[in-house]
Design a protein that fits this description.
The chain is of the alpha/beta class. It has a domain of 213 residues: 3-Layer(bba) Sandwich (FAD/NAD(P)-binding domain). It has 11 helices and 19 strands. The strands form 4 sheets. An 8-stranded mixed beta sheet has the order 6-5-14-15-16-13-18-17. It has a 5-stranded parallel beta sheet with strand order 8-2-1-12-19. The protein has a 3-stranded antiparallel beta sheet with strand order 3-7-4. The chain is globular and about 65 Å long.
Length: 413
């Protein structure tokens, strides 16, 4: 069997590694001239770390990432609303990690080249068309720089792991527009002294004014590289594409956070010190009823583009990759892709819809609505039982309960 993978992001690279482990040939075609991700952060949930450990990457991941052992919600006055242990501290057998997205892609790419050879990933080739018949799929590519037809590839299966603006998905859903959530986000990173113990991810504010921060790598001098996101609601329209590399001036949003100087984190200083700030809108697409069409399927953001709530997108792409490779290892390409879809699509639909409702982060919005000027006791605003249930409900929807994650991976050969 031969699998054609479109896109050398986290999902595509993990798929190729998983297929190699299962003894299945694959080849990735990437439109960019090199495999590289923007140098900002991503969180990997224990369920994804488990799968990367199954691929023999635990030690390399631990060396490149920062463990996250607490998630904490605060209001815009710096008062704690909720906190919960994460990763090993939360009883999981695997950590939760924060890592530079580019570093994770490089780690996966290096492992794939070492195992499958340089020819496994072909860069500078953009998919423009494909067709399938009873025996396979033929994909057609153009040179990304010249736009000229450059190559056609024949395989048994084609997997679209080509992200939010997936060419593969567009073939099956040609008129589905991006859905703008109404918030713009600005991201950057910089070295800071550790805060709140050095292993805490924080979210402060509410839906239309929020600040997210977490350490994504330790430094030799004792500081950490902090990944941060500032978010504001807007009444305007979002840009038509999610411009991950659009650099902007901090003056666009910095004044709105000028008073957010907490005892444990000086947010105005963090924003002021940032050297490069990237802007993008919070967007997703409506969940769809099918990912698989014969010998072609979707994976990761191409299959289930979701709002960046709950730190799920990258982790779930990794699990997708392991699931589809496991099913393909059984032999029947069409049946394997159908089974993969039936296992993964309902769960991803539930997460995407929960993310639109803010998931557990809805606690931030409720605290702002019920106590905009702050509180003396959070239990007067959000009772303990209500907070516990909101957290647990999202974990259940995301398949992140401790017992199921701590079980052996169902995707290992």
């Amino acid at each position: 069997m031969k699998v054609i993978i479109v896109g050398a992001g986290i999902g595509g690279l993990t798929t190729a590694l998983s297929l190699f482990e299962a003894g299945i040939e694959s080849r990735i075609f990437e439109a960019a001239s090199a495999v590289a991700g923007l140098g900002l952060g991503i969180n990997l949930q224990p369920i994804a770390v488990r799968e990367l450990a199954e691929l023999g990457l635990a030690d390399k991941l631990a060396a490149a990432a920062a463990p996250i052992e607490e998630l904490a919600f605060y209001n815009r006055h710096g008062q704690r609303i909720w906190s919960e242990p994460r990763g090993l501290a939360g009883g999981f057998h695997w950590p939760q990690y924060a890592i530079n997205r580019g570093a994770l892609q490089a780690l996966l790419h290096e492992a794939l080249r070492a195992r499958g050879g340089e020819a496994t990933v072909v860069t500078g080739h953009a998919l423009v068309d494909f067709e399938q018949d009873a025996t396979g799929v033929t994909a057609h590519f153009v040179d990304s720089k010249s736009g000229r037809r450059s190559h056609s590839e024949r395989g048994d299966v084609l997997i679209g792991a080509d992200g939010l603006h997936s060419v593969v998905r567009e073939r099956f859903y040609p008129r589905q527009a991006l859905t703008f959530a109404g918030q713009m986000m600005w991201r950057s990173s910089l070295p800071v002294p550790p805060y709140l113990g050095g292993r805490t991810m924080i979210m402060a504010g509410h839906r239309n004014q929020k600040f997210v921060a977490y350490p994504m790598s330790p430094l030799a001098d004792g500081n950490v590289v902090l990944n941060w996101i500032a978010e504001l609601g807007t009444t305007g329209e979002a840009s038509p594409r999610e411009e991950w590399n659009r650099r902007v001036d901090k003056a666009l949003f910095a004044d709105r956070f000028r008073t957010w100087k907490f005892d444990w984190l000086d947010i105005p200083s963090i924003i002021d010190r940032a050297q490069a700030i990237f802007e993008f809108p919070k967007v997703d697409r409506d969940p769809v009823s099918r990912w698989t069409f014969g010998r072609v399927t979707l994976l990761g953001d191409a299959a289930h583009p979701m709002q960046p709530v709950g730190s799920q997108a990258g982790s779930q792409a990794i699990v997708d990759a392991r699931a589809v490779a496991c099913r393909l290892a059984k032999g029947d390409p069409v049946g394997a892709l159908t089974q993969y879809e039936s296992e993964r699509l309902p769960l991803m639909r539930a997460i995407a819809l929960q993310n639109r409702a803010m998931g557990a982060e809805a606690m931030l919005e409720l605290a702002e609505e019920r106590a905009p000027d702050g509180f003396s006791d959070i239990n007067d605003v959000l009772p303990q039982a209500e907070r516990e249930e909101r957290s647990a409900a999202y974990s259940r929807a995301a398949g992140l309960n401790v017992e199921s994650v701590n079980a052996c991976s169902p995707y290992s050969p």
